[in-house]
Structures are given as C-alpha cells and as structure tokens.
Amino acid sequence: MALLGVAGIGTVYAKPSYKGANGGAFEEFKDMCENGHIACASCCIKMRNKCASCSWPIGYNRCRALEKVLESIRVSCRNMQHGCTESLNYSKKLDHEKTCKYAPCSCPHPDCNYVGLPKSLYTHFAAQHSRSSTQFRFNYGFPISLDNSQTHVFLQEKTESILFILNRSFEPLGSFVNVMCIAPTSFKREFSYELTAKDGFSSIKLKTIAESTPQWITQPPVKKCVLVPNDFITSAGQLKLEVTIWKERESPISSSRCSSLLQTPK
C-alpha cells in the first residue's frame, strides 16, 4: 500500500490501478472518508473499511477530484523503446498495450535474454540459434522426432520470418503435444496446423489453430493440444510426428473449429 499526497484532497492510501476508462475507470481510487482521506478499494478491504488516518468509516464515498486528476495524466506506452509513439490517457494505457503492434517478444531459447519485435527476433534466432531448430515451409508437411525426454522443438518458417514451437509435456498415459507461434497476443494472423502420430495401422491427429505467445516458457500445454498415448513411442524411445502448418489464407480449417481424431483400422 503506497501513501500519496495530493494537494487539496488529503492523504491518499492507494494501490496503483490501470483499469480501462470503461466499466469502472479508476475504481481503485473511489473510496474517501468524511475527513478527506482516500484509500484504494483493496486497501479498504484490508483495513476493514476503517480509515488508517482517523479511524472513520471509509469505502462509501468516491473522490471525484482525484479521479479527474488521474484521468488528465498522459503517459507513454511501455513499448516506446520498441517504436511506439503513442501518448495516452492514464486510464487507457493498459487497453492500448494489450493491442500495441510494437509489443516485443522474448527469445524462446534457454538462457537467452534477447527481446525484440517479431521480425528482429527471427533475425536474432536465425543468427544465434538456428542449429537448434527445424526449418520448414508453410503448407508442406515435415517429420519431427522427439527423443524420450525431449520437451520441445523450435520451428523456423523459411519464407516469412515466423517462429513456432512444438511443445510437449509428459503424463502417465502419454504426451500432450501442441504448436505455438512466437508473436504478440495482438498478432492478427492465424496459422492452422495438423499434428499426426502413427503406430502401424493406427494414427492420432490434431487439427487446430496455433496460439500466439510473446514469451514462451517450458510448461504443459493447457489447451488446443492432443494426448499421444505411450503406445506410439517407438522401441528406440522416440515419438515420431508429421506436422503441417498452413498460412492463414490457405488454412483448411477456421479458428472456430478444432478436432482430435483417433483412427484405427476397421
């Protein structure tokens, strides 16, 4: 809890808020006791609606003066160093940053701290880490073999400077597998993909849309993934997959459709 001094308003106990202008802008700062002391909503709860300065009840009156002060403040986007020149009302900062086209991405390679825009990230990755990746082309299938304990494969698209990751986690019954795109969450392109695992005459297949993430960390896939049973692991301990990633305009499926199919001989 921070203590703020605002001339003509009184003592302010406030936890900074970045809520949007719509749907309760600056709701954190609405609470004021009758003596003019102000606290944010979360602090009021912690203090059990008892003012920390004078012990009067607090949490029932808004401080519109402070709200006006905050609404008049203009701040820069946090992506300014990456090229964003927007000057924003304080209340609109978070909403803008969620969709800012200058949002950077982090290099997914372990122990690398590089951060940059998607195309710069691809250039960096190609120069520094290409030996640890598999290169492919959109719309063409390619094989992937994962060793017994391997959790991921970096995928470099050759023509459009886009990075993907095939992500794998282990469960008692098998492996959860999916593909993710390294891009800002505001990235407007959608890439569908197909994963196929085969075991003799049986196969399991996933068709869906690759989710975008600006910062990948090794963790189990939580959605849009397929469980490949342990029976599909070869005698050499490898999981063999066939992967195809399509350009968005040539995608055979829409973003509203995903499927996982287990096929066995009839």
Q: Please, could you describe this protein's structure?
A:
It is a single chain. The chain has 266 residues and is mainly beta. It has helices at residues 41-46, 64-72, 93-99, 118-128; strands at 2-6, 10-14, 31-32, 38-39, 74-76, 87-89, 105-106, 115-116, 133-136, 142-146, 152-157, 163-171, 174-182, 192-199, 202-209, 211-213, 226-229, 239-245, 259-263. The strands form five sheets. Strands 9, 11, 12, 13, 16 and 17 form a six-stranded mixed β-sheet that branches. A five-stranded antiparallel β-sheet has the order 10-18-14-15-19, with no helix packed on it.
CATH topology of the largest domain: Apoptosis, Tumor Necrosis Factor Receptor Associated Protein 2, Chain A
Gross morphology is: elongated
Taking all residues together, what is the mean pLDDT? 81
H and E string = EEEEHHEEHEEHEEEEEEEEEEE
Number of strands: 19
Tell me the CATH superfamily of the largest domain. Answer: Apoptosis, Tumor Necrosis Factor Receptor Associated Protein 2, Chain A
Helix content: 10-25%
End-to-end distance: 66 Å
- Unreliable spans: 1-27, 254-258, 261-266
Count of DSSP helices?
4
Q: Give the oligomer, counting copies of the same chain as homo and different chains as hetero.
A: single chain
How many domain units? 2
Structural class: mainly beta
The biggest sheet, with number of strands, parallel, antiparallel or mixed sense and barrel status, is:
6 strands, mixed
Please report which band the strand proportion falls in: under 5%, 5-15%, 15-25%, 25-35%, 35-45% or over 45%.
25-35%
According to CATH, what is the class of the largest domain?
Answer: Mainly Beta
